[in-house]
Amino acid sequence: MTPVAPGDPSPYLRSLFLTAIAAATPARLLAGRLPEPPSGRVLIVGAGKAAAAMAAAVEAEWPSPLDRLSGLVVTRYGHSVPTRRIDVVEAAHPVPDTAGRAAAGRILELAGSLDRDDLLICLISGGGSALLAAPAPGVTLEDKQTVNRALLRSGAPIDRINSVRKHLSAIKGGRLAEAAHPARVVTYLISDVPGDDPSVIASGPTVPDPTTFVEALHTLEEYGIDPPTSVGMHLLAGTEGRIAETPKPGDPAFADDELVMLATARDALAATATVARRVGITPLVLGDAIEGEARDVGTAHARLALALARSDRPSALAMLRAGLVSYAAPAGDLDPLAQTVPKAPCIVLSGGETTVTVRGAGRGGRNTEYALSLALSLGARPGISAIAADTDGIDGIEHNAGAVVTPDTLARAATAGLDATALLADNDAYTFFEALDDLVVTGPTRTNINDYRAILIQRA
Protein backbone atom coordinates (compact mmCIF):
# COMPACT_ATOMS: atom_id res chain seq x y z
CA MET A 1 0.00 0.00 0.00
CA THR A 2 1.25 3.48 -0.92
CA PRO A 3 -0.46 6.16 1.16
CA VAL A 4 -1.44 9.37 -0.56
CA ALA A 5 -0.42 12.79 0.70
CA PRO A 6 -2.42 13.56 3.84
CA GLY A 7 -5.47 15.74 3.90
CA ASP A 8 -7.14 14.23 6.93
CA PRO A 9 -4.11 12.94 8.89
CA SER A 10 -5.92 10.06 10.62
CA PRO A 11 -6.51 7.83 7.54
CA TYR A 12 -3.04 8.69 6.26
CA LEU A 13 -1.40 7.56 9.49
CA ARG A 14 -3.54 4.42 9.57
CA SER A 15 -2.46 3.58 6.02
CA LEU A 16 1.19 4.01 6.97
CA PHE A 17 0.63 1.56 9.81
CA LEU A 18 -0.72 -0.99 7.32
CA THR A 19 2.43 -0.44 5.25
CA ALA A 20 4.51 -1.32 8.31
CA ILE A 21 2.51 -4.51 8.83
CA ALA A 22 2.84 -5.49 5.18
CA ALA A 23 6.64 -5.29 5.50
CA ALA A 24 6.49 -8.22 7.94
CA THR A 25 3.98 -10.50 6.22
CA PRO A 26 5.25 -14.12 6.43
CA ALA A 27 4.04 -15.08 2.93
CA ARG A 28 6.34 -12.40 1.46
CA LEU A 29 9.29 -13.14 3.70
CA LEU A 30 9.80 -16.89 3.28
CA ALA A 31 9.81 -17.02 -0.52
CA GLY A 32 13.05 -18.61 -1.73
CA ARG A 33 14.55 -18.86 1.76
CA LEU A 34 13.86 -22.46 2.81
CA PRO A 35 16.67 -25.00 3.25
CA GLU A 36 17.27 -27.96 0.98
CA PRO A 37 15.26 -31.04 2.00
CA PRO A 38 17.34 -33.50 4.08
CA SER A 39 17.65 -37.23 3.53
CA GLY A 40 15.57 -37.85 6.63
CA ARG A 41 12.40 -36.40 8.11
CA VAL A 42 11.31 -32.74 8.07
CA LEU A 43 9.60 -31.51 11.21
CA ILE A 44 8.07 -28.02 11.40
CA VAL A 45 7.43 -26.54 14.86
CA GLY A 46 6.92 -23.02 16.05
CA ALA A 47 5.27 -20.55 18.36
CA GLY A 48 4.11 -16.96 18.23
CA LYS A 49 1.42 -14.71 16.86
CA ALA A 50 2.81 -15.23 13.35
CA ALA A 51 3.41 -18.98 13.73
CA ALA A 52 0.36 -20.20 11.81
CA ALA A 53 0.91 -17.75 8.95
CA MET A 54 4.58 -18.77 8.85
CA ALA A 55 3.60 -22.45 8.73
CA ALA A 56 1.24 -21.83 5.82
CA ALA A 57 4.02 -19.93 4.03
CA VAL A 58 6.43 -22.86 4.52
CA GLU A 59 3.89 -25.22 2.98
CA ALA A 60 3.41 -22.87 0.03
CA GLU A 61 7.16 -22.58 -0.56
CA TRP A 62 8.35 -26.11 0.22
CA PRO A 63 10.39 -27.35 -2.78
CA SER A 64 9.39 -31.04 -2.60
CA PRO A 65 6.14 -32.97 -2.02
CA LEU A 66 4.30 -31.92 1.13
CA ASP A 67 4.09 -35.50 2.34
CA ARG A 68 7.67 -35.00 3.58
CA LEU A 69 6.41 -32.40 6.05
CA SER A 70 4.78 -32.79 9.44
CA GLY A 71 4.70 -30.71 12.56
CA LEU A 72 2.92 -28.50 15.03
CA VAL A 73 2.86 -24.76 15.74
CA VAL A 74 1.08 -22.89 18.50
CA THR A 75 -0.39 -19.43 18.08
CA ARG A 76 -2.64 -17.04 19.97
CA TYR A 77 -6.39 -17.58 20.02
CA GLY A 78 -7.86 -16.09 16.84
CA HIS A 79 -4.55 -16.15 14.94
CA SER A 80 -4.86 -19.51 13.17
CA VAL A 81 -4.89 -19.94 9.40
CA PRO A 82 -5.60 -23.09 7.34
CA THR A 83 -2.67 -25.46 6.81
CA ARG A 84 -2.40 -28.80 5.03
CA ARG A 85 0.32 -30.79 6.81
CA ILE A 86 1.27 -28.76 9.88
CA ASP A 87 -1.06 -28.86 12.87
CA VAL A 88 -2.01 -25.50 14.38
CA VAL A 89 -2.97 -25.17 18.04
CA GLU A 90 -4.34 -21.99 19.57
CA ALA A 91 -3.47 -21.02 23.15
CA ALA A 92 -3.53 -18.04 25.51
CA HIS A 93 -1.35 -14.95 25.44
CA PRO A 94 0.10 -13.09 27.35
CA VAL A 95 -0.67 -15.39 30.31
CA PRO A 96 -0.13 -19.08 29.38
CA ASP A 97 -2.84 -21.73 29.68
CA THR A 98 -3.23 -25.51 29.55
CA ALA A 99 -3.54 -25.52 25.74
CA GLY A 100 -0.12 -23.90 25.48
CA ARG A 101 1.31 -26.35 27.98
CA ALA A 102 -0.04 -29.33 26.02
CA ALA A 103 1.26 -27.96 22.72
CA ALA A 104 4.72 -27.29 24.16
CA GLY A 105 4.84 -30.83 25.53
CA ARG A 106 3.97 -32.25 22.11
CA ILE A 107 6.61 -30.09 20.42
CA LEU A 108 9.28 -31.28 22.86
CA GLU A 109 8.28 -34.91 22.27
CA LEU A 110 8.39 -34.48 18.49
CA ALA A 111 11.79 -32.78 18.63
CA GLY A 112 13.16 -35.54 20.82
CA SER A 113 12.26 -38.14 18.19
CA LEU A 114 14.59 -36.68 15.54
CA ASP A 115 17.82 -38.29 14.31
CA ARG A 116 21.00 -36.94 12.72
CA ASP A 117 19.61 -37.07 9.16
CA ASP A 118 16.46 -35.16 10.08
CA LEU A 119 15.70 -31.43 9.88
CA LEU A 120 13.83 -29.31 12.39
CA ILE A 121 12.46 -26.02 11.04
CA CYS A 122 11.44 -23.75 13.90
CA LEU A 123 9.15 -20.77 13.24
CA ILE A 124 9.43 -18.17 15.98
CA SER A 125 7.72 -14.83 16.41
CA GLY A 126 6.64 -12.51 19.19
CA GLY A 127 4.28 -14.03 21.73
CA GLY A 128 5.97 -17.42 21.57
CA SER A 129 7.28 -17.20 25.11
CA ALA A 130 3.81 -17.28 26.67
CA LEU A 131 2.50 -19.76 24.10
CA LEU A 132 5.27 -22.33 24.71
CA ALA A 133 4.21 -23.05 28.27
CA ALA A 134 6.22 -26.08 29.39
CA PRO A 135 6.95 -25.55 33.09
CA ALA A 136 10.27 -26.82 34.41
CA PRO A 137 10.06 -29.89 36.64
CA GLY A 138 8.63 -28.97 40.03
CA VAL A 139 7.05 -25.71 38.80
CA THR A 140 3.28 -25.67 38.29
CA LEU A 141 1.50 -23.93 35.45
CA GLU A 142 -0.52 -21.97 37.98
CA ASP A 143 2.63 -20.62 39.60
CA LYS A 144 4.08 -19.70 36.20
CA GLN A 145 0.87 -17.82 35.46
CA THR A 146 1.18 -15.93 38.75
CA VAL A 147 4.77 -14.89 38.04
CA ASN A 148 3.95 -13.97 34.45
CA ARG A 149 1.12 -11.66 35.51
CA ALA A 150 3.35 -9.97 38.06
CA LEU A 151 6.13 -9.47 35.53
CA LEU A 152 3.74 -7.97 32.98
CA ARG A 153 2.55 -5.42 35.55
CA SER A 154 6.01 -4.63 36.88
CA GLY A 155 7.32 -2.42 34.08
CA ALA A 156 10.34 -4.71 33.55
CA PRO A 157 11.81 -4.71 30.01
CA ILE A 158 11.20 -7.79 27.90
CA ASP A 159 14.76 -9.13 28.14
CA ARG A 160 14.51 -9.18 31.94
CA ILE A 161 11.07 -10.79 31.82
CA ASN A 162 12.32 -13.48 29.46
CA SER A 163 15.36 -14.23 31.62
CA VAL A 164 12.85 -15.42 34.22
CA ARG A 165 10.64 -17.25 31.75
CA LYS A 166 13.61 -19.19 30.35
CA HIS A 167 14.61 -20.43 33.78
CA LEU A 168 11.12 -21.62 34.62
CA SER A 169 10.75 -23.56 31.36
CA ALA A 170 11.56 -26.99 30.00
CA ILE A 171 11.58 -25.76 26.39
CA LYS A 172 12.79 -22.15 26.26
CA GLY A 173 16.35 -20.85 26.60
CA GLY A 174 17.76 -23.29 24.03
CA ARG A 175 16.17 -26.41 25.48
CA LEU A 176 14.16 -27.16 22.32
CA ALA A 177 17.34 -27.28 20.24
CA GLU A 178 18.92 -29.41 22.96
CA ALA A 179 16.01 -31.86 22.70
CA ALA A 180 16.30 -32.01 18.89
CA HIS A 181 20.07 -32.67 18.86
CA PRO A 182 21.72 -34.20 16.79
CA ALA A 183 19.20 -33.15 14.12
CA ARG A 184 19.96 -29.92 12.28
CA VAL A 185 17.82 -26.97 13.38
CA VAL A 186 16.99 -23.99 11.17
CA THR A 187 15.11 -21.21 12.97
CA TYR A 188 13.20 -18.47 11.18
CA LEU A 189 12.56 -15.38 13.30
CA ILE A 190 10.23 -12.41 13.14
CA SER A 191 11.56 -10.10 15.83
CA ASP A 192 9.38 -8.24 18.30
CA VAL A 193 12.12 -7.23 20.73
CA PRO A 194 14.33 -4.12 20.85
CA GLY A 195 17.75 -5.00 19.49
CA ASP A 196 16.50 -8.16 17.74
CA ASP A 197 18.46 -10.49 20.04
CA PRO A 198 17.46 -14.05 18.98
CA SER A 199 17.89 -15.28 22.56
CA VAL A 200 15.17 -12.86 23.69
CA ILE A 201 12.62 -13.41 20.90
CA ALA A 202 10.05 -15.84 22.38
CA SER A 203 12.71 -16.60 25.04
CA GLY A 204 14.95 -18.28 22.45
CA PRO A 205 13.85 -21.94 22.43
CA THR A 206 16.49 -22.87 19.84
CA VAL A 207 19.16 -20.32 20.78
CA PRO A 208 21.97 -20.44 23.38
CA ASP A 209 20.95 -18.62 26.54
CA PRO A 210 23.47 -16.10 27.95
CA THR A 211 21.34 -15.43 31.08
CA THR A 212 21.50 -17.35 34.35
CA PHE A 213 19.39 -18.48 37.28
CA VAL A 214 21.07 -15.77 39.33
CA GLU A 215 19.91 -13.08 36.89
CA ALA A 216 16.38 -14.46 36.88
CA LEU A 217 16.21 -14.37 40.67
CA HIS A 218 17.64 -10.84 40.73
CA THR A 219 14.94 -9.70 38.28
CA LEU A 220 12.20 -10.84 40.64
CA GLU A 221 13.92 -9.16 43.57
CA GLU A 222 14.54 -5.90 41.69
CA TYR A 223 10.92 -5.56 40.63
CA GLY A 224 9.52 -6.51 44.01
CA ILE A 225 7.95 -9.79 42.95
CA ASP A 226 7.50 -12.37 45.71
CA PRO A 227 7.35 -15.65 43.77
CA PRO A 228 5.22 -18.68 44.67
CA THR A 229 7.03 -21.37 46.62
CA SER A 230 7.65 -23.70 43.68
CA VAL A 231 9.17 -20.87 41.63
CA GLY A 232 11.37 -19.59 44.43
CA MET A 233 12.65 -23.08 45.25
CA HIS A 234 13.38 -23.83 41.59
CA LEU A 235 15.33 -20.63 41.00
CA LEU A 236 17.24 -21.03 44.25
CA ALA A 237 18.17 -24.60 43.33
CA GLY A 238 19.46 -23.29 40.01
CA THR A 239 21.62 -20.64 41.65
CA GLU A 240 23.10 -23.32 43.90
CA GLY A 241 23.92 -25.61 40.97
CA ARG A 242 21.42 -28.31 41.93
CA ILE A 243 19.60 -27.81 38.60
CA ALA A 244 21.35 -27.69 35.24
CA GLU A 245 21.61 -24.27 33.62
CA THR A 246 20.09 -23.54 30.23
CA PRO A 247 22.47 -24.45 27.37
CA LYS A 248 25.03 -21.71 26.77
CA PRO A 249 26.95 -20.39 23.74
CA GLY A 250 29.42 -23.02 22.58
CA ASP A 251 27.18 -25.94 23.51
CA PRO A 252 27.51 -28.68 20.83
CA ALA A 253 23.71 -28.84 20.56
CA PHE A 254 23.89 -25.67 18.43
CA ALA A 255 26.90 -26.59 16.28
CA ASP A 256 25.12 -27.14 12.95
CA ASP A 257 22.12 -24.89 13.53
CA GLU A 258 21.16 -21.82 11.53
CA LEU A 259 19.23 -18.64 12.37
CA VAL A 260 17.41 -16.60 9.72
CA MET A 261 16.01 -13.19 10.70
CA LEU A 262 13.01 -12.61 8.44
CA ALA A 263 11.68 -9.27 9.66
CA THR A 264 12.38 -6.60 12.25
CA ALA A 265 10.94 -3.25 13.28
CA ARG A 266 13.75 -1.64 11.30
CA ASP A 267 12.29 -3.12 8.11
CA ALA A 268 8.88 -1.63 8.86
CA LEU A 269 10.33 1.80 9.62
CA ALA A 270 12.34 1.75 6.40
CA ALA A 271 9.21 0.79 4.41
CA THR A 272 7.13 3.62 5.83
CA ALA A 273 9.97 6.10 5.47
CA THR A 274 10.13 5.25 1.77
CA VAL A 275 6.42 5.83 1.14
CA ALA A 276 6.49 9.08 3.12
CA ARG A 277 9.29 10.42 0.93
CA ARG A 278 7.24 9.65 -2.18
CA VAL A 279 4.67 12.28 -1.19
CA GLY A 280 7.18 14.89 -0.06
CA ILE A 281 7.22 14.13 3.67
CA THR A 282 10.71 13.90 5.15
CA PRO A 283 11.15 11.06 7.65
CA LEU A 284 13.15 11.31 10.84
CA VAL A 285 13.66 7.77 12.17
CA LEU A 286 14.48 7.71 15.87
CA GLY A 287 15.31 4.02 15.87
CA ASP A 288 13.76 0.60 16.20
CA ALA A 289 14.74 -0.24 19.78
CA ILE A 290 13.11 2.41 21.96
CA GLU A 291 12.31 1.32 25.49
CA GLY A 292 11.17 3.04 28.67
CA GLU A 293 7.91 3.96 30.36
CA ALA A 294 5.31 4.57 27.65
CA ARG A 295 4.11 7.85 29.15
CA ASP A 296 7.67 9.16 29.54
CA VAL A 297 8.53 8.31 25.94
CA GLY A 298 5.31 10.02 24.82
CA THR A 299 6.26 13.20 26.67
CA ALA A 300 9.78 13.20 25.21
CA HIS A 301 8.53 12.62 21.67
CA ALA A 302 6.03 15.47 22.07
CA ARG A 303 8.87 17.84 22.96
CA LEU A 304 10.72 16.84 19.82
CA ALA A 305 7.61 17.21 17.66
CA LEU A 306 6.92 20.69 19.05
CA ALA A 307 10.48 21.78 18.30
CA LEU A 308 10.16 20.51 14.73
CA ALA A 309 6.79 22.24 14.33
CA ARG A 310 8.41 25.53 15.43
CA SER A 311 11.25 24.94 12.95
CA ASP A 312 13.51 25.02 15.99
CA ARG A 313 16.02 22.66 14.47
CA PRO A 314 18.84 23.47 16.92
CA SER A 315 16.64 22.47 19.87
CA ALA A 316 15.52 19.28 18.11
CA LEU A 317 19.08 18.28 17.33
CA ALA A 318 20.17 19.12 20.88
CA MET A 319 17.49 16.79 22.26
CA LEU A 320 18.74 13.99 20.05
CA ARG A 321 22.38 14.55 20.88
CA ALA A 322 21.75 14.81 24.61
CA GLY A 323 19.55 11.74 24.64
CA LEU A 324 16.62 13.78 25.95
CA VAL A 325 14.47 12.06 23.35
CA SER A 326 14.41 8.36 24.12
CA TYR A 327 15.87 6.50 21.19
CA ALA A 328 18.29 3.74 20.38
CA ALA A 329 19.28 4.38 16.80
CA PRO A 330 20.81 1.60 14.72
CA ALA A 331 23.84 2.30 12.58
CA GLY A 332 23.64 3.52 9.02
CA ASP A 333 20.91 5.40 7.26
CA LEU A 334 18.45 5.18 10.16
CA ASP A 335 20.73 7.11 12.51
CA PRO A 336 18.94 10.41 13.22
CA LEU A 337 22.19 12.20 14.03
CA ALA A 338 23.46 11.37 10.54
CA GLN A 339 20.43 13.09 8.99
CA THR A 340 19.48 16.70 8.61
CA VAL A 341 16.76 17.45 11.13
CA PRO A 342 13.81 18.04 8.83
CA LYS A 343 11.42 20.92 8.37
CA ALA A 344 7.66 20.38 8.10
CA PRO A 345 6.12 18.49 6.48
CA CYS A 346 7.96 15.66 8.18
CA ILE A 347 7.22 12.49 10.07
CA VAL A 348 8.96 11.11 13.17
CA LEU A 349 9.08 7.30 13.11
CA SER A 350 10.08 4.90 15.87
CA GLY A 351 9.77 1.30 16.95
CA GLY A 352 10.68 -0.85 19.93
CA GLU A 353 8.80 -1.82 23.05
CA THR A 354 7.86 0.55 25.81
CA THR A 355 6.53 -0.61 29.16
CA VAL A 356 3.72 0.35 31.52
CA THR A 357 4.07 0.13 35.26
CA VAL A 358 0.45 -0.50 36.21
CA ARG A 359 -0.67 1.57 39.19
CA GLY A 360 -4.30 2.25 38.24
CA ALA A 361 -7.35 0.12 37.56
CA GLY A 362 -8.05 1.21 33.99
CA ARG A 363 -7.79 -0.48 30.61
CA GLY A 364 -5.22 -0.06 27.86
CA GLY A 365 -1.81 -1.08 26.64
CA ARG A 366 1.49 0.66 26.17
CA ASN A 367 0.57 2.21 22.81
CA THR A 368 -2.63 3.87 23.99
CA GLU A 369 -0.77 5.03 27.11
CA TYR A 370 1.98 6.54 24.94
CA ALA A 371 -0.63 8.20 22.72
CA LEU A 372 -2.52 9.76 25.62
CA SER A 373 0.68 11.06 27.19
CA LEU A 374 1.72 12.46 23.80
CA ALA A 375 -1.65 14.19 23.36
CA LEU A 376 -1.44 15.82 26.78
CA SER A 377 2.10 17.03 26.13
CA LEU A 378 1.25 18.39 22.69
CA GLY A 379 -1.78 20.26 23.96
CA ALA A 380 -3.84 21.63 21.09
CA ARG A 381 -0.85 22.40 18.85
CA PRO A 382 -2.19 22.51 15.26
CA GLY A 383 -0.55 20.48 12.54
CA ILE A 384 0.69 17.57 14.69
CA SER A 385 -0.97 14.14 14.56
CA ALA A 386 0.25 10.70 15.55
CA ILE A 387 -0.41 6.99 15.63
CA ALA A 388 0.93 4.44 18.11
CA ALA A 389 0.02 0.81 17.58
CA ASP A 390 1.30 -2.72 18.00
CA THR A 391 1.91 -4.51 14.71
CA ASP A 392 0.32 -7.72 16.00
CA GLY A 393 -3.02 -5.89 16.22
CA ILE A 394 -3.24 -6.18 20.01
CA ASP A 395 -2.29 -3.48 22.49
CA GLY A 396 -1.93 -5.19 25.86
CA ILE A 397 -4.94 -7.46 26.29
CA GLU A 398 -7.51 -5.32 24.47
CA HIS A 399 -8.96 -5.81 20.98
CA ASN A 400 -7.30 -2.71 19.53
CA ALA A 401 -3.80 -2.24 18.15
CA GLY A 402 -3.39 1.29 19.47
CA ALA A 403 -4.77 4.79 18.91
CA VAL A 404 -4.57 7.93 16.79
CA VAL A 405 -3.95 11.45 18.11
CA THR A 406 -5.06 14.55 16.16
CA PRO A 407 -4.79 18.28 16.93
CA ASP A 408 -8.39 18.35 18.21
CA THR A 409 -8.07 15.26 20.44
CA LEU A 410 -8.11 17.16 23.73
CA ALA A 411 -10.88 19.52 22.59
CA ARG A 412 -13.12 16.62 21.62
CA ALA A 413 -12.29 14.91 24.90
CA ALA A 414 -13.30 17.98 26.89
CA THR A 415 -16.61 18.13 24.99
CA ALA A 416 -17.19 14.47 25.85
CA GLY A 417 -16.47 15.12 29.53
CA LEU A 418 -13.25 13.12 29.58
CA ASP A 419 -10.51 14.02 32.05
CA ALA A 420 -7.39 13.05 30.11
CA THR A 421 -5.00 13.58 33.03
CA ALA A 422 -7.06 11.47 35.42
CA LEU A 423 -7.49 8.69 32.89
CA LEU A 424 -3.74 8.56 32.25
CA ALA A 425 -3.08 8.38 35.99
CA ASP A 426 -5.49 5.42 36.16
CA ASN A 427 -3.81 3.62 33.21
CA ASP A 428 -7.14 4.02 31.39
CA ALA A 429 -6.10 5.26 27.96
CA TYR A 430 -8.35 2.70 26.26
CA THR A 431 -11.46 4.34 27.71
CA PHE A 432 -10.23 7.74 26.53
CA PHE A 433 -9.65 6.79 22.90
CA GLU A 434 -12.66 4.46 22.71
CA ALA A 435 -14.95 7.36 23.65
CA LEU A 436 -13.43 9.47 20.84
CA ASP A 437 -13.63 6.63 18.29
CA ASP A 438 -9.87 6.97 17.82
CA LEU A 439 -8.82 3.40 18.53
CA VAL A 440 -6.89 1.58 15.81
CA VAL A 441 -8.57 -1.79 15.26
CA THR A 442 -7.10 -4.22 12.72
CA GLY A 443 -7.89 -7.63 14.14
CA PRO A 444 -5.09 -10.22 14.23
CA THR A 445 -2.39 -9.28 11.72
CA ARG A 446 -0.60 -12.64 12.12
CA THR A 447 2.77 -10.98 12.34
CA ASN A 448 4.57 -9.11 15.10
CA ILE A 449 7.44 -6.65 14.89
CA ASN A 450 6.28 -4.83 18.02
CA ASP A 451 5.36 -1.19 18.46
CA TYR A 452 5.08 1.26 15.59
CA ARG A 453 4.85 5.00 16.18
CA ALA A 454 4.56 7.86 13.70
CA ILE A 455 4.19 11.58 14.46
CA LEU A 456 3.15 13.62 11.42
CA ILE A 457 4.13 17.31 11.50
CA GLN A 458 2.43 19.43 8.86
CA ARG A 459 2.81 23.09 8.08
CA ALA A 460 0.53 24.98 10.45
Helix and strand topology:
Blueprint: H1 9-22, H2 26-29, E1 42-47, H3 51-61, E2 69-76, E3 86-91, H4 98-112, E4 119-125, H5 128-131, H6 141-154, H7 158-166, H8 175-180, E5 184-190, H9 213-222, H10 229-239, E6 258-263, H11 265-278, E7 282-290, H12 294-309, H13 313-322, E8 346-352, H14 366-378, E9 384-390, E10 402-405, H15 409-415, H16 420-425, H17 429-435, E11 439-440, E12 451-457
Parallel strand pairs: 1-2, 1-4, 2-3, 4-5, 5-6, 7-8
Antiparallel strand pairs: 8-12, 9-10, 9-12, 10-11
Helix pairs in contact: 1-11, 7-9, 9-10, 12-13, 12-14, 14-17
Describe the 3D structure.
There is one protein chain. This protein is an alpha/beta fold and 460 residues long. The protein has 2 domains: 9-22 and 265-457, MOFRL domain (glycerate kinase, domain 1), CATH 3.40.1480; 26-263, Rossmann fold. 37% of the residues lie in helices and 17% in strands. The chain has 17 helices and 12 strands. It has helices at 9-22, 26-29, 51-61, 98-112, 128-131, 141-154, 158-166, 175-180, 213-222, 229-239, 265-278, 294-309, 313-322, 366-378, 409-415, 420-425, 429-435, and strands at 42-47, 69-76, 86-91, 119-125, 184-190, 258-263, 282-290, 346-352, 384-390, 402-405, 439-440, 451-457. The strands form 2 sheets. A 6-stranded parallel sheet has the order 3-2-1-4-5-6, with helices on both faces. The protein has a 6-stranded mixed sheet with strand order 7-8-12-9-10-11, sandwiched between helices. It is globular and about 65 Å long.
